[in-house]
Amino acid sequence: MKKLSIILLFLALRGFGFSQTVKINSDIVASKTVYAMRLLENTLGKAGYKLRDTLTKFTIDLKIDSLKFGPESFGIIPSKTTIRIVGGDSRGLIYGSLALCENIRNGVALDKIKATEEKPRYTYRNIKFDLPYDTYRHSYALDLHQETCKDIKYWESFLDMMAENRFNILSLWNLHPYVYMIRAKNFPEASPFSDAEMKEWQTLFHGILRLAKEREIETYLVPFNIFVSPEFSKAHNVAMDNLEHHFFVRGDTSEIIKRYTRESVAQVLQEYPELTGFGLTLGEGMAGMSPQEREDWMKETIIEGMRLSGRKCKLIHRIPFSSNVGSLGPTSIETERLTRKAIDEEGTMDFIEKPIWADFKYNWSHAHSTPTLVKVHGGKLFDTYFVPKPETYKVTWTARNEDFFCLRWGVPDFIRSHIKENNQEYVGGYTIGSETYIPAKDYFTKSDIKVDWKYAFERQWLFYKLWGRLLYNPDTPDAVFQAEFTNRYGKDGKNLLKASSLAGKTPLRLASSFDFTWDFSLYSEGFLSLKDKTVSYIDIIRQIEQPVTEPSFVSIADFVKIKTSGGNIESGKVTPPMLAEMLEKDCRIALELTKNINTKNNNTLMYEVADVCTWAYLGLYYSEKIKGGVALQVYRMTGDLQHKQKSITHLEAALKFWDEVIAITKPIYNDMPLVHFTEQSDNTKEQNEALRFHWHILRPEVANDIEIAKNLVYEK
């Protein structure tokens, strides 16, 4: 009878799909596992597993063991019917759960899960997010994100992406954030909002910070300085020369502004306990102040406000980029010394958690150029912050992207090279993000084309996945990223990572061969640069004469000068002909890898392939332009008409490749607002807002390169 009962029970369980049943166990406080549990339940359900509390084939145990695993680390330990996910802390537990979910999505059955362990390379993996309210720059291209960024569903999706890609910090930036988060107790007149509006804003910010906390993502508020609300200015007759909040203005250091600022900082930290800390950025609204005066102002306001809050918090101290009283001064060793002194002093303050993050802009505003550290904002970086080795702070690098907003991008080996260059003990990690682009509303995609994404950041999924996963673990193999293409597109996705890696070198090579400084000085996606205070197409003469960024590259002008004078190029240098050959080889392979992909029934795949092909044709255009530039410069130096005609032929070929770019992008992308156009000094606000970017708009200027070559006259 007992045997019969067992047989009947077995048959019953089999009928209910016993082999697909799972139980999730946890003896950890529920608040620490709620997000990990939800991830697992959703993924298992989609994979066809049934969740039960009893009589299950598989058990998943969630554990935290800080003795065996360090912070943010995890292990997946499988046995025959049990999988243990062990985190060094609750963040590590989330990452372990995400790793198991990734395996399940890749089609790995629970009984085939392999043991694995991972730990973070960097403990600081930050996304810089410029909020569209009271933006750093005034632009329609930023304002149009306001409604999207007031929707908590957007933030839930964005923070899910951050957790999945192992980003652990969200920094929120705008000129004057306090009025959106609090009604200052002693300065209620500073608020522009009604009680109902204030409640709406506070609900939003509490919601963002709550969602971040649930995902174990730290949050920092980074106000620019020195700014107050127009209402405050009018009430107290201060900062009246900057009611419109332009960012390069003289700083008003009135005592009432100091008091208002430090009290606002303290109140924000008290009313938002989930907020991790603050960031200091020294420059905006501080013209006319010396470096020491700027540091003193920060100490008297934000740092003092942190102390007055009565709780511990963390600090990002952005390295100042001006060594004089101007807003765009050069770097200097003297400024480095006084800034290091200030950070070292902050390191002795018991209300500031250690380490402090000392943040630099890597290669100014264009980190997507070369992994070689050539400059920071303002120019040369000295060794003051590294010698002697810091004890209470870590250096972090901001990898700004001001170079591609529309086209998808992903070159894993470039990011790995960045990390390899910056593996010193004093380096804490990276910030990625932009100041002229907000990844919220998708204003690129033609509205009549149906796609499976909603938000702009979802288009750039590979960008975020590569930066986040590789900053966490640079040994993450390409197979992980290729698997995501396969999950999304099946066999049609098998070549897309390689194709992206090859074609995506195009903007890196442009930025390595064309020197830049601040945001508008280069926009690689559009082959635009700043000239005479106007953002415009990089014409052939500018391309010839512009110095390079990457020290191993040789400019066209320098190359031709050396060759025509009978000299030799230094060994190991990348010459313009070599660069043209590299571009042509990689881009033709990328096109070959994508030519047989059928995108007719999948618009999302169509966009992926289109972007790879666009980068590839831009690379082929650039290759021909370089060849044309070399030939034209030889003519300029020697008067040899054969080289002039050769230049014209290459520039005509370049135009044909630009036409291929237009043929791909015009049917699928809108004419796009671009912050780079919205501050043209000779235009009205309305004229700036009417300006749009698209490759078809630039065609006459690309064609004009041919006319420049034709009309050029040799002068001895």
Provide a short characterization of the protein structure.
The chain is 44% helix and 12% strand. The chain has an eight-stranded parallel β-barrel with strand order 7-8-9-10-11-12-13-14, surrounded by four helices. A six-stranded mixed β-sheet has the order 2-1-3-5-4-6, covered by helices on one side.
Q: Whole-number average pLDDT? A: 95
**What would you say the CATH architecture of the largest domain is?**
Alpha-Beta Barrel
Q: Can you tell me the CATH topology of the largest domain?
A: TIM Barrel
Q: How far apart, in Å, are the first and last alpha carbons?
A: 110 Å
Question: Can you tell me the number of structural domains?
Answer: 3
Stretches where pLDDT is under 50 for at least 5 consecutive residues are 4-16
**Number of E strands:** 16
Biggest sheet character: 8 strands, parallel, barrel
Class of the largest domain, according to the CATH hierarchy?
A: Alpha Beta
Please tally the helical runs, counting DSSP H or I stretches of 4 or more residues. Answer: 25
The H-level CATH homologous superfamily of the largest domain, spelled out, is Glycosidases
In the sheet with the most strands, the strands line up as: 7-8-9-10-11-12-13-14
